[in-house]
Amino acid sequence: MAEKGVERVKNVVLVGQGGVGKTMLAEAMLHLTGATTRLGGHAGTKPTLDYDTEESERGFSISTTIAPVIWNDTRINVLDAPCYPDFIGDAYSAMSAGETAVFVVDAASGPGTITTRLWYAAENLSLARAIFINRLDRPDADHETAMGLLRERFGNKLGSVTIPMGSGEAFGGVIDVVHQKARYLVDGKPVVEDIPEEYAAAAADARAALTELVVEADDELMMRYLDGGEITQEELEGLLNKALVDRVFVPVFAGSCVREEGVVAFLDAVEGWFPQMADFGRIPLVNGEQLDISPDDERPVAFAFKSLQDPQNGRLTFLKVLAGTLEPGAELTNARTRKTERLSHLYRMCGRDTTDVGRAAAGDIVVVPKLEVLTGDTLSVTGKVEAAAFRFPNSLYRIAIEPDERGAEGKLFAFLEKAAAADPTLRIERDEDTGQTVVSAIGEAQVAVLLDRLESRAGVGAHKVALRIPYRETIRRVASAQGRHKKQTGGAGQYGDCWLRVEPNPDAGYEFVDEVVGGHIPRGFIPAIDKGIQEIMREGVLAGYPMIDIKVAVYEGSYHPVDSNEMAFKTAARIGFQKAIDQAEPVLLEPMAHLKITVPDSYAGSVMGDVSASRGRVEGMNAGTGTALGQTTIEATVPYAEVTDYATRLRSLSRGTGEYEVELSGYEQVPHDIQAKLAADYAERRAAGER
Known about the structure:
Structural class: alpha+beta
Number of strands: 36
Strand content: 25-35%
Number of helices: 16
Oligomer: single chain
């Protein structure tokens, strides 16, 4: 292995509701294993993991950090994932690199909405799952109530492997249910002794319940147990790993991370019977095949699960070694780009600190600088191995970004592009219709952090502006008009004369027809008429938006043998088209959005009410089944102008539990009052000399 004395590597991902103590659990693991000398982030000490300035100011994790600890002969890579809703994408990528997702839950409030969302994400990734009930030293802590809420939310696979001795101020350690021992700390040193009399009955009941759960992993032992036979200590400990790998059992731990109680028992469990990568046997590939996990396979394969643009170290790529052994200088090919990458250095990262690694075996996690890979890429010797990528949550919060000062657009876009390359939940685009630089993210806080980093790291101040809605203009009736341009100066003049007919052309775009006969307009001037019409259609006539679905015919006109030219006929066409449009009942069209919204049943009524209040119409409802039981999917069509902030609105309506998909689905006429307002705004801008 990479280090003397380390025989196994296990990767656990800490997830759960924001503010429940995930980072404190990782800090306690660092301290108790000797990786740090003090408990970071508590009583004024500097945290090891939440080192970013933005994290310190906001009080929550923004990016996944790693705490590699060694316990006995096992390295445990602890991935502390951010679970604030706007940064939940990092939790998804972190879970793709772990074998076990550990859900940290508050002993007073139980599981929250983010916990539930990530629980099913872990299920979709086929991860083993465990729960750590934290803060049992709080006055309002109640272990039994927390367990009841957990079972109500996640079913009856949950089994306590440690239970608390007391709660609130009386909390004094945990009972190790597996080994039937009491465990607590004295002056920071672990003590293991016999279970006090008052907890003996609770410990025996917990042991029986645990045994009943885990025997399901072995048919022979289950039959013996059901027939009244005993399960030995050795058999029970052997069942724990299999039951966790087979996902028939979810271990539940108890403790207080601030007091570090229950953390040593948790470390022992991770080292003793939590799964390692080899326990799962195979890794799914994009082509439907499986990559065998074998310790004898020397062909290195690595999966990029995270990228980071670090101000000190530059671009860093987090790799999980899926097969073989990685060494500095290795050359591997990216399955997506077919480009060969040289791994010049391998680092192990603890918080922001890096140390060189000589080699990394299958199952381990390392950080490599200066790779041109994206999150989800697979590197291998042949470039033909591609691990199945995970699905990120939709980035549906869209907002436009503008620099505070003119001339900074280039630096702004360059920084945003780098940020998007490192974070798959960020998308940057230049909207050709509106000319805006648009950021798509999961939520407002993600964009706020992006803007702060833009200023602190690139020296560019920028601000958010509302999205411009890509309205369109069209007509409702047929009309005709003459466009005549005559200008006489001292020399050659200008003369163009044409008659135009305009008519609606539903869903067929722009169409130009030449109906002139008898040579009243020479053929050479017809393209100029077409060009003049298209120019004014791009500008719009009602509220400054492009015109669509109009058929224009030129059917009569006249010319002057000397004064007529292309410019004159182009100008005449603009005049005639404007006059015809004024008579053709011009209207404003707005883009419509088709929404597919999924929320718990209890929020369906609120969501449908909001759709109606947003000028939308509900077009269908479906009740969820299977893992989506208790969910309602609502399909609706709503004006796009009403849902540009829907990511934020749905989060409020559903308390963070709702998800939705959106796509534009054509145009419809806007109500008269909105059209009048937009037309008035346009007239005001034109009067002020603006476009």
